[in-house]
Amino acid sequence: MSIILEGNDITKRFDSKSGNEKLTILNSTNIQIEKGSVVTVVGASGCGKSTLLHILGGLDQPDEGSVSWNGQSIYEMDKKALAEFRNTKLGFVFQFHHLLPEFTALENIMMPSLIRGNTADETEKRARGLLEDFGIPGRAEHRPTQLSGGEQQRVAMARALINNPDLILADEPTGNLDEENTEILLKLLFDLREEEDVSLLLITHEKDIARRSDIIYELSKGQLHEL
Ligand SMILES: Nc1ncnc2c1ncn2[C@@H]1O[C@H](COP(=O)(O)OP(=O)(O)OP(=O)(O)O)[C@@H](O)[C@H]1O
Questions:
Q1: What Pfam families does UniProt report for this protein, alphabetically (predicted)?
Q2: Distance 14 CA to ligand 1 centre (A)
Q3: Which protein residue has the closest C-alpha to ligand 1 atom 8?
Q4: Averaged confidence pLDDT in the chain
């Protein structure tokens, strides 16, 4: 199995509330994600899980250490290359889906593909296909406020997938869903791994997801420990 994403000796500090000391949130921690694997990170609230996900996803530079994609150090890329890396190789799903309210479900899903320069026709075809796969073909023209929470999360997933990413980074993707919608989203996530060989990095409190992962890490005291 090949390693697609690797974080080495990642350290991240933030200013404390009083501002006169630094809090070390991540302390020289390491992680490796193999192609096609499902990796889950669990840990107490505030321990640094989201911070780690942002660093691994090229959204927030670590103070020390490196993140590599297929052996290439992402924070040594220039801004444009880093943005392109994020847009083409990664898909992000957050607890609060960050859909753009003024656009329809279909337009939200199409956005990353259009930014990448794909034609509207081919993009729309794929976006409609994803809505179909996710069981909400009739919601294409709805705006986010006209969708249920579970539907919004499925649209966010479809948007994360439009560019055929190699890795999905998901931060509490089922965090604000009821049991039924959690089950639907979980099935979609794990089907993806089966059908498209997508790797998944998940932050979750859901015991069901953790159980179905290849590797579970607990983040504590700034370091990842395999459970
Ligand atoms: N930009 C920032 N500036 C200062 N402190 C920050 C910043 N971002 C995060 N922190 C702090 O770093 C710590 C880790 O935050 P993070 O959101 O990564 O935790 P988490 O494990 O994802 O928490 P939760 O499970 O509650 O979402 C928290 O104490 C938080 O207050």
A1: ABC_tran
A2: 9
A3: 51
A4: 92
How many residues in the chain?
Answer: 227
Domains in the chain with CATH codes: 3-226 (3.40.50.300)
214 Cβ contact list (under 8 Å, min separation 6): 34, 37, 38, 39
Is pLDDT above 90 for 146? yes
Please identify which residue in the block is written with the tokens 């791994």.
Answer: 193
Q: From ligand 1's centre to the CA of 52, what distance in Å?
A: 10
Q: Which residues contact 227 (CB under 8 A, 6 or more apart)?
A: 42, 216, 217, 218
- Rounded Cα distance between 43 and 61, Å, is 21
Is the confidence at residue 207, as pLDDT, over 80? no
**Residue 188 C-alpha to ligand 1 middle, in angstroms?**
28
> Taking a C-beta distance cutoff of 8 angstroms, is the pair 185, 173 a contact?
yes
How far CA 51 is from CA of 14, 57, 69, 147, in Å, comes to: 10, 10, 18, 29
From residue 95, give the alpha-carbon distance in Å to each of 122, 169, 171, 176, 182: 29, 11, 6, 7, 12
